[in-house]
From TrEMBL:
GO cellular component: chromatin; cohesin complex; nucleus
InterPro entries: ARM-type_fold (IPR016024), Cohesin_Scc3/SA (IPR039662), HEAT_SCC3-SA (IPR056396), SCD (IPR020839)
Molecular function in Gene Ontology: chromatin binding
Family as reported in the entry's similarity comment: Belongs to the SCC3 family.
Domain SCD, residue spans: 21-106
Name this protein carries in UniProt: STAG2 protein
Residue intervals passing through the bilayer: none
PANTHER family, per database record: COHESIN SUBUNIT SA-2, STROMAL ANTIGEN
GO biological process: sister chromatid cohesion
Organism of provenance: Cisticola juncidis
Length: 278
């Protein structure tokens, strides 16, 4: 009897879905389209057994191409609620492979709010499975740490940190209390220097530091480690920094000190609402 009741309820839900949602998710009024996407996100999250499958997810994927930013935004926030729950990740694999390129392209959305949420969604995708995003996908997000719009840059900074800086080798656990050149931060500082040089935007160290300031403060304030990398002799088997790398580290270090002292973003970085269409 319980199974019959459940089947009956699901049949009623499907009838309502086909009779109302399927027509209204393409409504002429953007607010109604946004409500539809917001609600289907809630259904898929609360009743994943019935709604979290590709028959329903495809509507969210299609609507990511909506002309109105508020509707695209609802798609991304609905998906964030799903990707945040790691127990649901296996049900999202086909959707991810099918619509990943669209999500990556939305990091350059003409609406700043949409771009920020697209980056945050990709950060959740990254945490669910590192194999999903290609090196090219990641690089498309990395360069946004130099964006003039701070919320976009900060979101990209968190993505960059999660991808390149948040993992520690098991052996690091035994040397957490070491300081200076022998601390676990030493390799992370080098990674930051290498990334900065590879990006070839050498006049924008302040932008990179500001982008990562919120998520990597402890690393960026480890001036003892930075000093030791510049002044102490390399450890056995350790590659010394080149002159170019040392110069980059000095520039980054100066920017971190300025950021700590002044507590505001670099000149030219703001929080405007829109960016030109791309």
């Amino acid at each position: 009897q319980l199974q019959e009741n459940q089947d009956e309820i699901e049949n009623m839900m499907n009838a309502i879905f086909k009779g109302v949602f399927v027509h209204r998710y393409r409504d002429a009024i953007a607010e109604i389209r946004a409500i539809c996407i917001e609600e289907i996100g809630i259904w898929m999250k609360m009743y994943s057994d019935a709604f979290l499958n590709d028959s329903y997810l495809k509507y969210v994927g299609w609507t990511m191409h909506d002309k109105q930013g508020e509707v695209r935004l609802k798609c991304l926030t609905a998906l964030q609620g799903l990707y945040y729950n790691k127990e649901l990740n296996s049900k999202l694999e086909l959707f991810t492979s099918r619509f990943k390129d669209r999500i990556v392209s939305m990091t350059l959305d003409k609406e700043y709010d949409v771009a920020v949420q697209a980056i945050k969604l990709l950060t959740l995708v990254l945490q669910s499975s590192e194999e999903v995003l290609t090196a090219e996908d990641c690089e498309n997000v990395y360069h946004l740490v130099y964006s003039a719009h701070r919320p976009v840059a900060v979101a990209a900074g968190e993505f960059l940190y999660k991808k390149l800086f948040s993992r520690r080798d098991a052996e690091d656990d035994g040397i957490l209390k070491r300081r200076g050149r022998q601390s676990p931060n030493a390799n992370l500082v080098k990674t930051l220097v290498f990334f900065f040089l590879e990006s070839e935007l050498h006049e924008h160290a302040a932008y990179l530091v500001d982008s990562m300031w919120d998520c990597a403060t402890d690393l960026l304030k480890d001036w003892e480690c930075m000093n030791s990398l510049l002044l102490e002799e390399p450890l056995n088997g350790e590659e010394p920094l080149t002159d170019r790398q040392e110069s980059a580290l000095i520039e980054i270090m100066l920017c971190t000190i300025r950021q700590a002292a002044e507590c505001h973003p670099p000149v030219g970085r703001g929080t405007g609402k829109r960016v030109g269409a791309k």
